[in-house]
Amino acid sequence: MSHLKLFAATLRRHGFKLLEKQDIARRAFLHGQRYVSSGTSEPFLSGSNSNYVEEMYYAWLENPKSVHKSWDVFFRSANAGQTRDPHLPAQLEGKASFLQSHGLAPTPGKAEKVVEDHLAVQSLIRAYQIRGHHVAQLDPLGILDADLDSFIPSDLITTIDKLGFYGLHESDLDKVFQLPTTTFIGGNENSLSLREIIKRLEYTYCQHIGLEYMFINDVEQCQWIRQKFETPGVMKFTNEEKRTLLARLVRSMRFEDFLARKWSSEKRFGLEGCEVMIPALKTIIDKSSEMGIEYVIMGMPHRGRLNVLANVIRKELEQIFCQFDPKLEAADEGSGDVKYHLGMYHERINRVTNKKITLSLMANPSHLEAVDPVVQGKTKAEQFYRGDTAGKKVMSILLHGDAAFAGQGVVYETFHLSDLPSYTTNGTIHVVVNNQIGFTTDPRMARSSPYPTDVARVVNAPIFHVNADDPEAVMYVCSVAAEWRNTFNKDVVVDLVCYRRRGHNEMDEPMFTQPLMYKQIHKQVPVLKKYADKLIADGTVTLQEFEEEIAKYDRICEEAYTRSKDNKILHIKHWLDSPWPGFFNMDGEPKSMSCPPTGISEELLTHIGNVASSVPVEDFKIHSGLSRILKARSEMTKNRVVDWALAEYMAFGSVLKEGIHVRLSGQDVERGTFSHRHHVLHDQEVDKRTCVPMNHLWEQQAPYTVCNSSLSEYGVLGFELGFAMASPNALVCWEAQFGDFHNTAQCIIDQFISSGQAKWVRHNGIVLLLPHGMEGMGPEHSSARPERFLQMSNDDSDAYPEFSEQFEVSQLYECNWIVVNCSTPANYFHVLRRQILLPFRKPLIVLTPKSLLRHPEAKSSFDEMVSGTTFQRVIPENGLAAQAPHEVKRVIFCTGKVYYDLVKERKNQDLEKQVAITRLEQISPFPFDLLKEELDKYPTADLVWCQEEHKNSGYYDYVKPRFRTIVNHTRPIWYVGREPAAAAATGNKNMHLVSLRRFLDTAFNLEAFEGKTF
């Protein structure tokens, strides 16, 4: 490499932009020089061109604009005493007097100092980019630090004396430094004085916006954010945009003022102190609509919900106001919920973009962050059914409180779903209403992280902190957040640092616990007045226009209030967040109260069985062990028999043919926890090559989605629940790795699945598959805790129902969920298909087996699944005992796996004529009608309930009062099973077998209950 090329490379290394060879040739010609091209893109001078730099320097002295700006910067720096590099070209070495006289020649230590100074400036810029948010003015009250620390990082230049940290001095402030490519503070300028550099950095990073993004490990994304915030003059608004912002603030604040005047003693969880949230959300929606979004699904806690419903979703104000009427009557089904938990679905025109937009605010309980995964699941489903694989039509917005965002583990679980292929929603915008306080808990006692938003860093989501009393800064941040989500399809967090003007609710007294904060809050000028004064002062609006805007909205509220007095009936269905057009009739009722038979033709069964036992992809190498499994499936199909896995396959496959999407999600569901399912085949020689035979059943079929989830129950179950909300024409299943794993998802089960319809008229057909069975494997993973589901069932144990032809379906319609423990693969097949064929949707809880997956007796014939067959809620005794019922001495009722133990023991003791065994396949709602037939059939027999679970667990406490209701308390129902225990099962294998032996002996001891009273 020539000396001049080396020099050029050295200059580039220090950030200079050199002339292209065409420019060099042109300037050489102007100076009477000859340019010799090297044939490369590098500038190259040789021969008579060796005096080129010297000649250019003389030209620059005469007129700085006569040379390229990169050389202009170079010569300016040289004149300021900054040598750019110690290694000048050899052609210039003989010109020492010229170079030294103009500061171009190297002198001892000078070159090193220049390099150090430039590195120091680059380090300074990076320090602001990384830690500038720590000194940003984020707290509107001016009394707290948003990061819980008043310490100023030592590498930020907040005072002149700190220049020494970088080896710089006050005398360096007016020196010009070349800017690195990792900053945009120069705009169109490549260099700035140190004084200007610091000024622009502080303006960008230390005012009302605090940026956290330097932890992102993607250079393009970091550069994108820098350009959006560092470029001078980017945060500018037109007068029209400012007036729109003011009008939205007026609506936000006057809505809260109106509620406070009319219902001063009512809890409403108002938005006072963060009124800017309304224009913030509308900005996100406007910008997203502009970029093509058609549907926005939102979830939020209760603070500000009524305001969001009124001014973002645009629900009729009279519908909101009538909720405050204490004389309100409930006309619809369900128990309803408080007004600040309700949701809404609304299609309207976005006035800014003039495009149609659909908005859905999900109903949710006071379990603040529980709605997060539910929103994500519904968003994923809406994207899936629209074919919106990139999330360009449907998106989600999640609102959070600061304390809950930091404290609730489901937030972390939800974030970790954000980039998983089967769970991603292609980016969510998170808006944190940062009150800087929990209920009464100081944030310093509520979290260990500097910010409540630090959990978002785990997925490299940028975090934009912003002072909520600077509306324009908030609007700009929200606009950038919407662009980020659309550009990178990743999550982003907007942290609105605000305050809570009142207590936790309007009845709460915050001065008890936060006296200093609330003394300041009482003196705080509301954001609307601050912003209005600013716009009036700069002439954007007049005082009259501002007052007219207030009067206009106040008039709207008063007129709606008057109309609300005529609406005395609570129509819960006006608050549906997930309507299913066309599924119900005009009144929201099922179109019929019947369910067709759930069996299918033998031709379909055979076809599905053949596909289930094949590899429908050429040149696909499967595991040898899997080959044996597929061969066994093929043999079963030929023999017209199914086991549990094949029955499930046939249920799923048959509804796919009918156009019903099937989604199975959970930990290890693709293979199955017990290695029985194998719905995803893996090529043993090609990494990541898989095959899902279920998607090769027919040319025209609905898609089958089977996906292993993250090791999460709370988040994933919430996600699947949300997915099931989007459409009634889908079979959505969540399988726990073991049944008791639902423990950590109990909030979703209690607050959404069990009571969702009663509170929010929200039908949902989600299926929970919970492996259950006492098999001597220890206290964990034995019991799926069926007693919990049964305790939350809403059927009345003491009410004797009226039986009719439609009793089965009407009973299902009136229940809150269905709990089954199937003992045969055929019945499992039927109950899955019934879930789709019913004219309504109810959650289905299936206690699935473990050992029965391969039990030789737990198989079903095609005859139990063909056309005309249906789900059996009760499977009665059909052996010798049923042929002579008056001779039967004992009827044992049971459910699930224990049936096979009982049948084996009965045969061993030769009691097949004296003991009948009846299985309850559907436990809730309780099959009163079928069990009455069984009880009447054996009028003189002892009635025994036998279960393998402990007495204080399982089903006994649920079934006992219902059996007694059927017989009008005239016959006892005796318990046989394990004794009460604190743990679900013993950890000792021998003890497990001993207790099994004990209760089997009791079950068939025909004198066991003689002389006992009940």
Keywords:
Rossmann fold, 28 strands, 1014 residues
Summarize the SSE layout with pairings.
Blueprint lengths: L2 H11 L7 H10 L21 H11 L6 H11 L16 H6 L8 H22 L44 E3 L12 E3 H12 L3 E4 L6 H12 L8 H24 L14 H14 L4 E5 L5 H7 L5 H5 L7 E2 L13 E7 L4 E7 L9 H16 L7 E8 H6 L1 H7 L12 E7 L8 H4 L16 E5 L3 H18 L3 E6 L17 H9 L3 H11 L5 H22 L4 E2 L31 H11 L11 H15 L2 E2 L1 H14 L3 E6 L14 E2 L7 E2 L12 E5 L5 H12 L4 E6 L10 H9 L1 H5 L6 E5 L14 H6 L15 H8 L3 E3 L4 H13 L6 E5 L11 E2 L12 E2 L4 H4 L6 E5 L3 H11 L6 E6 L1 E3 L3 H10 L4 E9 L5 H11 L6 E6 L10 H15 L11
Parallel strand pairs: 4-7, 4-8, 5-12, 8-9, 9-11, 10-11, 14-17, 14-18, 18-19, 19-21, 20-21, 24-25, 24-27, 27-28
Antiparallel strand pairs: 1-2, 3-10, 6-7, 13-22, 15-16, 20-26, 23-25
Note down, in words, how this protein is organized.
With 1014 residues, this protein is an alpha/beta fold. The chain has 5 domains: 3-107, no CATH class; 111-230, no CATH class; 239-326 and 338-575, Thiamin diphosphate (ThDP)-binding fold, Pyr/PP domains (Rossmann fold, 3-Layer(aba) Sandwich); 602-772 and 821-864, Rossmann fold (3-Layer(aba) Sandwich), CATH 3.40.50.12470; 876-1003, Multifunctional 2-oxoglutarate metabolism enzyme, C-terminal domain (Rossmann fold), CATH 3.40.50. 38% of the residues lie in helices and 13% in strands. The chain is built from 34 helices and 28 strands. The strands form 7 sheets. The chain has an 8-stranded mixed sheet with strand order 3-10-11-9-8-4-7-6, sandwiched between helices. The chain starts with a helix and ends in an 11-residue tail after the last helix. The model is unreliable at 1-51 and 81-106 (pLDDT under 50).
